[in-house]
Write the structure tokens for this entry.
Amino acid sequence: GQQLNQSPQSMFIQEGEDVSMNCTSSSIFNTWLWYKQDPGEGPVLLIALYKAGELTSNGRLTAQFGITRKDSFLNISASIPSDVGIYFCAGLSGTYKYIFGTGTRLKVLA
Amino acid sequence: EAQVTQNPRYLITVTGKKLTVTCSQNMNHEYMSWYRQDPGLGLRQIYYSMNVEATDKGDVPEGYKVSRKEKRNFPLILESPSPNQTSLYFCASSPDGLREETQYFGPGTRLLVL
């Protein structure tokens, strides 16, 4: 089945640093989503993007919908220990089918 | 409290023994979906349902069945489980499946097939 390529797979950063991760696809999507999963829990939606070129923020998080509609980026500014978790991108092509990325595991060192 | 519940949360079974994982939501959502999560592969959609009696295959439907007889329930059925179905399973729901702000995920069911 189709999957999105997400990078990096994992990263260790120092508290206070900015974080960037991205997601690419060979297919076009109408919607890009970013989720965070805490240990032992289900994913929780962070940001949804609906238009190519769109830049959306949610607190310290900023995400962008790529112009080609085949990629998206998530930035976290001034990371804190509670940012630890797995971040997933997901694409929706308008057909009710969600395609998820492989995840970026983030660990923040205090 | 608005939520998606799954049962059981943990299950150990043997190859070939039929099992059902239940999923229920109390938000009157039209859309429900099942995913499996495996290390290095992220979440993959198994089946989804747009409404009662309307279901369709996701990316990895082989070996699974679903039914949607009532709006609130969307059980996942493994008729003859195999070890490659050992995984972490999530159920999710949202108002209509096309606007994503309120897609809620359940707490997950960890399945081990021996």
